[in-house]
Amino acid sequence: MCAQPAPPDRPAVLPDNTGRATPEVPPRAPRSRITPIQWVGLAALLLLLLNQMGLLQLSNPTSALGLLNAQLPRFVGLVLAITVHEFSHGFVATLFGDSLPRRVGRLTLNPLKHLDPIGTLMILVGPIGWGRPMPINPAEMRNPNLGWAMSSLAGPVSNLLAATLVAALYAVLSGSLDPVVFRYVATYILINVLLAVFNLIPIPPLDGFGFVFGLAPQPLKVLLLPLQRYGMFILLAMLFLPQLRPVMDTFIGTGLQLILPPLEDVCGCSLRLA
Questions:
Q1: Pairing with 259, which of 7, 30, 52, 87 sits 20 to 30 Å away (CA)?
Q2: How many domains does one find in the chain?
Q3: What band does 84 get if pLDDT is binned at 50, 70 and 90?
């Protein structure tokens, strides 16, 4: 979920074996893609097949639509929270002078620009999901170290601000809202808080590490640098190894205990849905 430094652009020319610059080989012509009309046709065939199998009954909790209806608040909440999270990384980076997020078209609140294909699939079928890391270029920033730290911190902070704003709006409008809306509101608030707390873990590629690394003095940066190579393995171990999972649970549980009670006071409701 964190902002990731982008690799340098590829050169327009490449040196050959003699040391002379030769033009880069042009890319291959793209293969033919499925047209939008063909996608619609495939979707219609899939719906017909599911209907024949009896899987499109909304009242049936085990049907495809029944499961989608039950998971819709979580899906909507994750998509919106990830969008706010990634946009905020890029927005703060641009405040420090980085033009990369804007140049690659990521400085937008359009969810389609921030969703990762595999991460979105996991939102639909799994307990977690993720978005495309926001590319940043600290070398363009007026203060690279502080800019990297603040752009990393911007993601979790934006999620907490979004949760607080929605909680305040619900407190004002709850009397005129349909009770069904509460599940979407509570789920969105919980997801934003969980996303913020989880990303504050100081392990790469999470934002907590980006914040610490950006503010660390140079000698400490040298010591932390190898973690960028092995951080993902450490994170997966903390998620799935029974010996390390209590460390993750303690960190997240402590964060929830600190953040959720004030938000419940703001919205005047209980957010314990999980």
A1: 87
A2: 1
A3: very high
Q: Is residue 88 part of a domain?
A: yes
State the burial class of residue 254 (Cβ atoms within 10 Å of its Cβ: 0-12, 13-18, 19+).
exposed
Say if CB 250 and CB 241 are below 8 A apart.
Answer: no
Tens digit of each residue's pLDDT (9 = 90 or more) over 223-268: 998 888 888 899 889 888 899 999 999 999 999 999 999 999 999 8
Report the C-alpha gap between 71 and 62 in whole angstroms: 12
Would you give the DSSP letter of residue 264?
H
Residue 15, in any domain of the structure: no
Q: Which of 24, 86, 140, 264 is catalytic?
A: 86
Q: What is the pLDDT of residues 185-209, one digit of tens each?
A: 999 999 999 999 999 999 999 999 9
Whether residue 13 lies inside any domain: the answer is no
Q: Which pair of tokens denotes residue 252?
A: 């997240």
- CA distances, 18 to each of 23, 44, 214 (Å): 14, 57, 41
Look at residue 138 and tell me whether its pLDDT is greater than 90: yes
86 is catalytic: yes
Q: Residue 258 sits in which domain range? A: 68-267
Helix (H) or strand (E) holding 17: none
Range list of β-strands (E), the chain? 4-5, 13-15, 21-23, 135-136
Does 133 map to a domain?
A: yes
What's the rounded Cα separation, in Å, for the pair 59 and 56?
A: 9
